[in-house]
Model the fold of this input.
Amino acid sequence: MDDFFRQKGFQIRQTTREEERVLCLGDRQFFRNGKSFFVEYKSGIQTHYTGNIFLETISVDDPNHFKIGWVYTCKADYIIYATVLDDCLLMFIPDQLRKKMERLKLVFREAATNNHQNIGYNTHGLIVPFEWAKQNLADRIIELESIGV
Done:
């Protein structure tokens, strides 16, 4: 994704471990035209196969090391959820997404990962249909095939 955005004129810096993990500012800082902002990249490879996006509500469910998910902790200016196999990037403004979560929980089910992706804990999140998220949830949509990626 860095290459894609660099081609669009952005300078990109990978954030430090403290900026990403402690301050929750995201994994990249973008610069252009004298302005900067922070971005958190998320990937939804499974979206192509399941038709859903995964909005992480609990990152680690181990009672000894419990950690809430990126939906609630992200302080970046934008979350870019890449569904590359579907030629699409969904952009979310974290504060706006958080404001919608309680309503979304009434409509969509929350599920834990169950394929032992992590040793000793599961991640939980809302399962939201991709097409619904495109039409009703994303703050901006970038269709990759329409711009020659």
Remarks:
- The mean pLDDT is 92.
- The first helix runs from residue 2 to 7.
- The two ends are 10 Å apart (CA to CA).
